[in-house]
Amino acid sequence: MPKARNSALKIGGVTIRAGETKDIGLNLSETYTGDTIRMPVRVIRSKKAGPRVFVTAAIHGDEINGTGIIHDFLFGQSCELKCGTLILVPVVNVLGFENNQRYLPDRRDLNRSFPGSQNGSMAGRIAYKLMNEIAKKCDYGIDLHSAAFQRTNYPNVRADLSSPNIRKLASAFGCALVIDGKGPLGSFRRESARAGTPTIILEAGEPWKIEPSVLQIGVQGIRNVLVHLGMQDGQPSPPPFQATIRKTLWLRATVGGILKFHISPGAFVREGEAIATNYSILGEEQNIITSPTHGIAIGMATMPAVKPGEPVCHIAKLSESQIKRYERSLNKDKSDPYKQAQSDLATNLDVVEVNES
User: Fold this and answer.
1) Quick check: pTM over 0.90?
2) Distance (Å, rounded) from C-alpha 54 to C-alpha 140?
3) Which residues are bridge partners to 315 per DSSP?
4) What tens digit of pLDDT does each residue of 146-204 get?
5) Do the Cβ atoms of 259 and 280 come closer than 8 Å?
6) Beta strand pairing call for 140-145 and 52-57
């Protein structure tokens, strides 16, 4: 646990003292006409000293489930803190968000541009600003993401579990699936952790959407972390199970065609189980894509038309005994948000029985 801090906090030149809540427009860039482009930030500070936590969303401008999670957290629940500081950034990539685009106007991926550079590219400057104005001034971080274009992700937390502080943070969030890894080079969570701020990410749902079951899991996770850190009262909301994932793999199309899926996101699969059937454009069966391992489907294509090599399904490896244990856990509570997420995310896929023509 970091040392409790109650000194004045300055973000973007604005001082936020203990007991204050302020909305700040953090200067990011300018339009062609010289108007300032600002990142919206809300800072909530308790009068009592405690940890500083940031929650960011929409580093990819089309991944707005995280924006919805922060929105619901702010307006659907009480944000009063017992101690510490909470910094909420519902949209990091304002330029991409305004244009419904994943990337920045310079076509760079902001989430491969950290730690950034004060005098670098547009992406580098924004990354530098986020690192130095937000991440480095906090003790913990949560970064909210969705799947890439034409895919959906079953809710999972990704974290570098070799770090004890990050491992505790990931566990406290309370997601059913925790995937081990440092993150890609240049990613925000990797560089934030490297700079001394333990950071995790939530991957959930599709781009361009705000999905109710994803919101429930995300808001619940933020609140779990705050309870764990002693920043809010209450009891954490545990998931039906929590699996640590060490290895994942992508199944890819071998021929061009149209997919019909046989499983939904979040489904447990066994080795040899049919995942999808690839049909020709005239409806002739070409091949059946099967799982090479036991596991759980953590990501799936939502675009049924595929070319050779394109992703079909992302499988997180589990043992047969793990699957049986986790299946029993899910069956105990029919109202669990993870079961609801599995049902909701499947509505954007053509899921049929294996023998259906």
Assistant:
1) yes
2) 7
3) 249, 297
4) 999 999 999 999 999 999 999 999 999 999 999 999 999 999 999 999 999 999 999 99
5) no
6) parallel
- pLDDT tens per residue across span 117-132: 999 999 999 999 999 9
Q: Which CATH class is domain 9-228?
A: alpha beta
Which long-range contacts (C-beta less than 8 Å, at least 24 apart) are formed by 9-18?
A: 9/43, 9/45, 9/52, 9/85, 9/137, 11/41, 11/43, 11/87, 11/133, 11/134, 11/137, 12/41, 12/133, 16/43, 16/45, 16/85, 17/45, 18/45, 18/46, 18/47, 18/48, 18/49
Measured in residues, the chain has a length of 357
Phi/psi of residue 290, each to 5°? -115, 160
Q: How many CA atoms lie within 13 A of 4 on its CB side?
A: 14
Q: Which residue has the tokens 């619940």?
A: 220
Q: Using CA atoms, how far apart are residues 43 and 28, in angstroms rounded to an integer?
A: 17
Q: How many helices (H) and strands (E) does the chain have?
A: 8, 19
Q: Class assignment of domain 247-346?
A: mainly beta
Distance of CA 183 to the CA centre of its chain: 12
Instruction: Check if the beta carbon of residue 345 is closer than 8 Å to that of residue 302.
Output: no
Sequence spans of domains, the chain: 9-228, 247-346
Looking at this protein, which amino acid is placed at residue 323? I
According to DSSP, the residues that pair with 104 across neighbouring strands are: none
